[in-house]
């Protein structure tokens, strides 16, 4: 296939002082090499962009490998935008097409033409970076004023239209049925010994799902408890973020205990879930619904998670994630010491031992500790074999009574809320106080039911089956069994204290 020269002409409006497309073509023909030439003309089209029919046809022919050179009367016939022009030249280079401008004596087939092209590209890059910086500055400015900046809407909220400083934007609005779940997640995780796995299992057992109908996993629960959109930002929260090295946009007096907050990533490499240093906190226009004390407790647990062992890849012990130092509360980790002359030895060491000012706990024989814990697990399970039918029936009766109390509480809360439209300040204060009391009672009843479900669960026989074949189980399976029975273990040379889940 033979290549041809392409002449491109453009004229936005037909004026006396403008050169016609016919005249442009005549000038360009003087630069043509050989006889093969094709004319592309856009008449009545502006040079502000490249959305022109003849120009699009030219670009298609170039990409099809038909064009040898593109000739124009002047550079601005291609585009008046430096960025657009640079993009077009980039396509020319990829397809080995030379570019000639008759007025500027611009020919990329010559050394001086290539040098001029480099200058054009440098200015195009400068314009790109300037535009990019403007976008970054605009984003920072809008985010610091509390504007909604897009992204997934957190669980517990939906979006609604609003206006901030005369600018239309969006803000979060609580979704009642989801906020109850969020409160439950924070309430559970705020307990010192509760893990993300414990919360996940509680939600699954009670048939609580995400808005897409799927179960909560550890990652989604963590996303909830670390997000300040839920908190009622008060001065205590301001002090917390200030102490963590976070950049706070709003003044301290703005933290009045009503608004939620946005947390934006800073220049630090660490993720927001791991460190708050260098990130930016901005008060949001929506109201939060988690008190700052509860939110900070949950956030500190995430920041201080080095005190919890990670059992995911545990190989040396099936007590990983459960066994802790009785002196400082940090996790005990199992270490294997290989010996040439005898069997390998396993020891538990405190993970806080090598920190500055850390624990002075000495080692424990892991085989001895594991044996004691296993015996205690067997003893605990024998209690369920001797449960009388009367005790089980009593437990079922208690469960029914607790469910009835929860229904009565729901009715009382509903009746109190119906009185809000006509309530004065005194009555409102009483309603708020009483609803808070009833809500606390309701949570305690749910906790009692969950504890009872574990105590009288149907999985005891299954666990007994695992215990009978303990030596044949993998470490992973043993960890699963222990997690069903044990909340945590505090060990020292003097004693071993086991807190049971059942």
Keywords:
Rossmann fold, five-stranded mixed beta sheet, Hect, E3 ligase catalytic domain fold, alpha/beta, three-stranded mixed beta sheet, 3 domains, 502 residues
Description:
- With 502 residues, the protein is α/β, with parallel strands linked by helices.
- The protein folds into three domains: 4-132, Resolvase, N-terminal catalytic domain (Rossmann fold); 157-303, Hect, E3 ligase catalytic domain fold; 366-500, no CATH class.
- 44% of the residues lie in helices and 17% in strands.
- It contains 14 helices and 16 strands.
- It has helices spanning 21-29, 53-63, 82-94, 111-144, 176-189, 196-205, 218-225, 235-243, 292-303, 366-385, 389-418, 425-455, 460-468, 475-485; strands at residues 4-11, 37-43, 67-72, 98-101, 106-107, 157-164, 167-174, 247-248, 259-264, 280-287, 323-325, 332-337, 345-350, 364-365, 486-491, 496-500.
- The strands form five sheets. It has a five-stranded mixed beta sheet, sandwiched between helices. The protein has a three-stranded mixed beta sheet with strand order 8-10-9, with helices on one face.
- It starts with a strand and ends with a strand.
- The model is unreliable at 306-313 (pLDDT under 50).
